[in-house]
Amino acid sequence: MGANCVTRREKTSADPKELTEIETAMGSGGSNWTAKQNKVFENALAVYDKDTPDRWHNLARAVGGKTAEEVKRHYERLVDDVNKIETGQVPFPNYRKSAHGPRGFCFIDEEKRMRSLRLH
What we know:
There is one protein chain. With 120 residues, the chain is mainly alpha-helical. It has a domain at 30-90: Homeodomain-like (Arc Repressor Mutant, subunit A). Helices cover 51% and strands 7% of the residues. The chain has five helices and two strands; from the N terminus they run βααααβα. The protein has helices at residues 16-27, 35-47, 55-63, 68-86, 110-117, and strands at residues 8-11, 95-98. It has a two-stranded antiparallel sheet with strand order 1-2. Helix 2 runs antiparallel to helix 3 (55-63) and helix 3 (55-63) crosses helix 4. The two termini are 23 Å apart. One of its GO terms (molecular function) is DNA-binding transcription factor activity. Residues 31-79 form the Myb-like domain. This is Protein RADIALIS-like 3. Its main location: nucleus. It is found in: Nucleus.
C-alpha cells in the first residue's frame, strides 16, 4: 500500500448477541413499531414535551395503534439507548480498512490516477 492510496472502510458482520439486544430494544419488548410510527413518535415528542398534561395519551393518539403505556415504555427505552450511546456502552461497528479505491484500484501516484481517469 502506497502513501497516496485511497482507502475505504468495509463493514464486518455484527455480533449476533448485539443485534438481538438492538432488535429487542427497537421492538420495545414485543410491541412492534413501524418506521412510520417511530418517525411520528419522534416528531410528536417535540410537540408534547415533559410538561404537557396527559403527555403519554397525547403521544399514543398521535402515533396511533399504541397505548399510553406502550408509548411510555418506548420512550424509556429510547432514553436508555441514548444514554448508552452517550456513555460509550454501545460499541461502534467494526470496519476494516482497504488499500483499494471504490473499484479495487490503488492510486500510487497522480500520473497513474490521471491515466486511469483518462484525463492526462
